[in-house]
Amino acid sequence: MFGKLRQFIKTSKQVHLTEDEFRAGREKFMIYMQENPVRNAEDARHIWQRPLFLTQRPMFATIATIVILALSGGTAAAAEGSVPGSSLYPIKVYVNEQVRAALAVSPQAKVNWEARRAERRLEEVTKLVADNKLTASTSVQLGEQFKKHAERVQERIERMEEKGNVENAAWVKHRFEASLKAHQAILERFTTPPSSTTSTTSTVPAQTTPVTTTPEVNLRPLLIELKLKLKEEKREEKREQKDERKEDRREEKVEKVAEHAMKSALHKINTVSILIARVKEKFGADAIVRAQVKLDLARRAYVDGKAAFDAKIYEKAIELFKEAYTLAQEAHLLLNVERRHVILPIPLPLPPATTTPATSTATSTTVHSQTTSSVNNDADDEDENDKDEDKKDRKDAVRGRDKDFKLFRGRPRIDSNVRVEANIKL
Amino acid sequence: MGLSPHEHNFIKAYDAYADAIFRHCYFRVFDRERAKELMQETFTRTWDYMVKGNEVKSIRTFLYKIANNLIIDHVRKKKEFSLETLQETGFEPSHTTKDELHIHIDAERVIEVIGKLDEMYREPILMRYVDGLKPKEIAELLNETVNVVSVRINRGVKQLRELLK
Does B7 touch chain A (CB under 8 A)? Predict the structure, then answer.
C-alpha cells in the first residue's frame, strides 16, 4: 500500500517541462525583463529575506537586505568612481563591493576580489591626494580598510596553499605584490619636495583645504602599512624560496610559475601598449611620454626575463617578469591618474638635459597651470558628443562592454602567446 | 546579453522554480499548453510586482500564490470545465514518445485518483507531494493554520491509499 503511494508521487513528478520548453520559456522571460526593466532607484527595493535558490548562509541574508540591486545602472556606476566624503561612497563599499563579494564563488574569485578591494582603497587615496582633499582621518580610515583587505588576501592565499593550490596562490601573491609596489611608487611621488607641493596647494580654494596641507603626514599611515605589507611578503617570499631550493620536486612548479609570470607580464605590456595608442590623442604629452618610458623599461625587463627562462634560470626569470609587470602596472597607473584630468609635477626618471632645479620647478608649475587652464577650457567647451559618449561609456562599463574602462580596471587576462608575442618590439 | 544584477538574480529564481510551478499549474488545469502559459504569467507578474518596489519575503511562496490566483481566474473562465470532461475528451499530461507510453498511462491513473479525492484534501495533497511544499508554506498559501493543513494531509493520504488499492 505504501509502495503504491510512493509510485503515485513518483509518477506525478514525472510531469515536467522538456528542455526545449524550459529554454524557450526562459528566453521569453529574459526578453520580458529587459523590456520592462527597473526604472527608479527609489521604486525598486527588492528585499528577498530568504533567497533559497542562491545560498543558505545567514550572511547572505544580511547582504541581501543591504543590496539595493534595483538601483538603476547609472547610480551604481556613478558610485564606482566615488571616494570617501561622497554621498555615493557607502553604496560603492556596502552595496557594489558586497554584491561582487557575494557573487564570487570560487576561492580564486574570492581572493582576486579581496585583492581588488585593497587596490581600490589605494586608488581612492591617490584620487583624494590628486584633488588635494585627503584629510588625516580619511587617510587613517583608508589605511585601516586597506590593511583589513590585505590581511584577508593573505589568509585566503594561505588557505589555497594548504589545500595544495600552490601555483595559483603564488600567482595571486605575485600579482598583488606587484600592484602594491606600483601604488607605493605613485604615492611616494606625492610626497615630493615642499616647493612643488606648495605650488600645487596654492591653486586650491580655501574652503577645500584639508586639515593639514602636508601630504607627507596624511599619507604616512598608509605608506607605513604598504611598506609593512611588502616587507612581510618579501620575508615570506624569501622563506619560501629557501624551502623551494631544498625540495627538488618544487622545480617543476617553479617552471610553471615562471611561465605564468611570463604570460602575465607579456599581457600587461600588451594591454598598456594598446591603451597608450588609444589615448595618445586625448591625454597630455607629458603623461604619455612618462608612461611610454615605463613601458619601454618593462619591455627590456621582459626580454631579459625571457632569456633567463630559456636558459632555465627560473628564479631569475620570475624576478625579471615581476619587474616587467610592475613597470607596466606603473605605466598603467600613470595613465589612470591622467585620466582623472589631474597633471602631477612628477619628475621624469631620466635627468633633464639643460634645466636647473629651480627652473624645472617653475617649468612644471607652468605646465601644470597651463594644462589646468586647458583642462578647464576643455571642460567649458566640452563637446555635446563627448558628454553623450561619457554617458554611453558609463552605461557600457556597467554592462562590461567598454573596452577602455575594462583596460583601465587593469585586470590582466592570459591570452595565447602567439598573438601577444607580435607586440613586443626590441 | 548583459543582465543587470537584479535580472541575474531573478532568472536564477526562474531556473529553480519554473518546472515546479508548471507542474503545480498542470495538476489544476490538466492542459499542458495552458499550464505553460500560466507558469510564464506567474513569473512575469511577480517581476512586475517587484519592479514597482513591493517587498517579497519568500520568492517561492509568492510564486505559488500568484500561480494559484491565476489558476482560480482560469477555472472561473472555463465554466464547463470538469475532470469528467477531460477524461472524455482526452488529454496529454506529459510530452510523451512511444517509448514513454507507460508514463502516459500511469499519469492517467494519477489524474483519475486525484479526481476522486475529496476537494478539501486534494490541494494539500498535491502541494505536499507533487509540489514538495512544506506544511508551513501550504498553510500560508491556503490561509489556514499549520495544524489544519497537517490534519488534512494525513486524512488525504489515508483516502489516497484506499483509492490506490
Answer: yes
Is the CB of residue B117 less than 8 Å away from at least one CB of chain A? no
Per-residue burial over A391-423, b = 16 or more CB atoms within 10 Å of its CB, e = otherwise: eebbebbbeeebeebebbebebeeeeeeebeee
Say yes or no for a CB contact (<8 Å) between A46 and B3. no
What CA–CA distance (Å, rounded) separates A358 from B126? 88
Q: How far apart are CA A8 and CA A3, in angstroms?
A: 8
Question: Å from B93 to nearest chain A CA?
Answer: 7
3-state secondary structure of B164: helix
CA distance A338 to chain B (A): 30
What pLDDT digit, counting tens, does each position of B57-79 carry?
788 999 999 999 999 888 887 65
Cα of A365 to nearest chain B Cα, Å: 45
> pLDDT averaged over chain A?
69
Q: Is the ipTM of this complex over 0.90?
A: no
